[in-house]
Design a protein that fits this description.
Bound molecules: phosphoenolpyruvate, magnesium ion
Pfam family, one: PEP-utilizers_C
Shape: globular
Radius of gyration: 30 Å
Number of domains: 3
Family: Belongs to the PEP-utilizing enzyme family.
Helix content: 40-55%
CATH topology of the largest domain: TIM Barrel
Mean pLDDT: 88
Number of strands: 22
Catalytic activity: L-histidyl-[protein] + phosphoenolpyruvate = N(pros)-phospho-L-histidyl-[protein] + pyruvate
Largest sheet: 8 strands, mixed
Enzyme class: transferase
EC number: 2.7.3.9
Strand content: 15-25%
Oligomer: single chain
CATH architecture of the largest domain: Alpha-Beta Barrel
Length: about 750
Amino acid sequence: MLKMLRDITQAVAAAQDLHSALDMLVSRTKIAMKTQCCSIYLLEGEQLVLSATDGLLRSAVGRVKMSLSEGLVGLVAEREEPINLADAQQHARFKQFEEAEEASFRAFLAAPIIYQKRILGVLVVQQADTRLFSEGEEAFLMTLAAQLAMAIRNLRKKAEAPDLLHFKGISAANGIAIAHALVIGGQIELEQPDVKVTDIKAEQTRLNHAIEACKDTLCSLSQRFDQEEEHEVVSIFSALQLLLDNASLGGEYIKEVTEGWSAVSAVSRVSLRYIEEFTQMKDLYLKERAGDIRDLGLRVLRLLIEPERMGFEPDVPVILVTKEADATILAEFPRHKLVGIVTEQGGVNSHAAILARALGVPAIIGVEGVLTAGIDKKLLIINANRGQLLVSPTPTLIAEYRNLISAEKALQQRYARELTLPAETIDGKRIQLYLNAGLLSSLESEIAEGSDGVGLYRTEIPFMLQQRFPSESEQVKVYRQVLEIAGGKPVVMRTLDVGGDKPLSYFPINEENPFLGWRGIRLSLDHPELFLVQLRAMIQAGADSDQLHILLPMVSNLDEIDQAITYLEQAYFELKSDLGKDIIRPKIGIMIEVPALLYQLAEVARRVDFVSVGSNDLTQYMLAVDRNNPRVSTLYDCYHPGILRALKRARFDCWQYHLPVSVCGELAGEPIGVILLVAMGYDQLSMNQGSLARINYLLRRVSHSDLSELLEMALTLTSGLQVRELVRDYFESRELGAILN
Ligand code: PEP
Ligand code: MG
């Protein structure tokens, strides 16, 4: 049964057009269910239309139509549940459609086809005998209808606008861009078939060319990043270059070709063999090398399989379309040539998304099927504000979007003009605006100009850009640079928050439930050797000023805070004695991301200097919704009145216990979120660089005293949607509606 289901759904999903898909569906389902008739009705406007049949008269297709209040098929759609009848003709809702010639059928089983709560159509099987279909048959038809819903929806969309391909994804970084697609990396896998060749010499030459080209790319990338002073990235390329040497992996690839394997097979075989060996090793450093071997293998394979794709230096700016934009791809890509990012995988807070926001490039992630849709080099419009991707848009659409881009630019310029003015409401309430950051290069201008400092420096980003754990001195260098760029303003540095959806290629963690697993502080406390190195590096970098604040992620109990503070003390005193001088002890804080901590703020206040609310994770854990899962993305709602009440209560408790508090989740960079948070009394907000100017502009146009009434009203509402509408109306009434675009 399972195999039949899979065969039918795959065949339908792979069909070129809606008609052939539906014909295939009804004939295969009829065979699989051993019935005499299978038909599908699709909802067109208000009517269900017979769209394909194997058993009724073919000429009735497109002609038999009924409203939802007519016939048994209408009843299935109306009730949104299956109907199984031994003799349909006895049912009060039975309606005979002469043109279909269905008089001979008695047994009737039908299941609704529903996509995202909306009815698309009804799938029906019929038989001449009077018999009830079995439970198994009913389950089969329902499963089939559920599995086919998305494919049918997509095929219908394609049928409605054949030239305009339309994809939907999750917005990871706002903005709109128009450019051609550059599809990379989607097809290359490290696992390649074992192929023997006869012309060994030719294969050696091919491999040597690929190795040389790869060395050249790595060398020029090193030089480029050296000039841009991204020293953290330079070290990646230097390590890879060394590995390509004859005495190392390069030599191993060549040896394999000498034994008769094709260049592609050789690189694949060597890489897989060494990755296996290295991941088995006990020594952490050697274990980490598996990541380098994989990265290098993929680079050389790409040069062998699609050489024109390497180098990543398109002539004109492009929208990069890829499976998963890992940190290295994004860091390598020349920034002035990158105007948009589309990925098939990943979640809103995947590292690709975080990097895209840090780079200020519009990005949509989780776009299903985009790599196999043949869109390379086609013109795209990416509207990340709405998670939309349009392929080959019409001239009218292009003109419309160009207007939108100009309007957006004009707005941004208007916001930017006030960036250096303080974020102060009309009635004089000053709100501190900080920056969320992770890449050095994205920090400079904003710190100097508009922000009050760095409210969240995600140290996992520089860790992700490496091929191994950075050493203490490497970390000191990076943290020092961050503090220097901040020019005396406070910097909140968060200790490593990997795990969940933020993996390190060199430290694989396989878990059933990663968001509830080994994340953030849990991992740091289990690896004091890594944690102490990071703490020492941070303290050393901030030793001479009071800028540095250390923030602990994913804390779920007080014991974790106590343990972390003990390590902090150890690192501090060790360093003090190593350096032989008095050094400044950083302030320590924790993130409020785990709901239980909301009820322990009194105890938290006795242990730390400040807290920062991580509304991204707090929402995920309070609502039990995976923040990266597109299927439940509509349930992931920071404006859920329950969340808002928790945030209000947290603000009150922090005030009561004299515990300084900020918010650093995405909510703190969204206009609606900011209004509500400020109304609750939050006066320290940390956000992505793209939001800074806009939020500053907004705050300078609202009156703090108006907001408490708005908040009180919001808290009486029953859904996040209503809350957003309420605040939207408030913006409109003050001519601030454009701020939401
Ligand atoms: C958060 O959870 O709100 C947060 C800021 O941390 P991150 O998004 O990095 O998990
Ligand atoms: Mg978090």
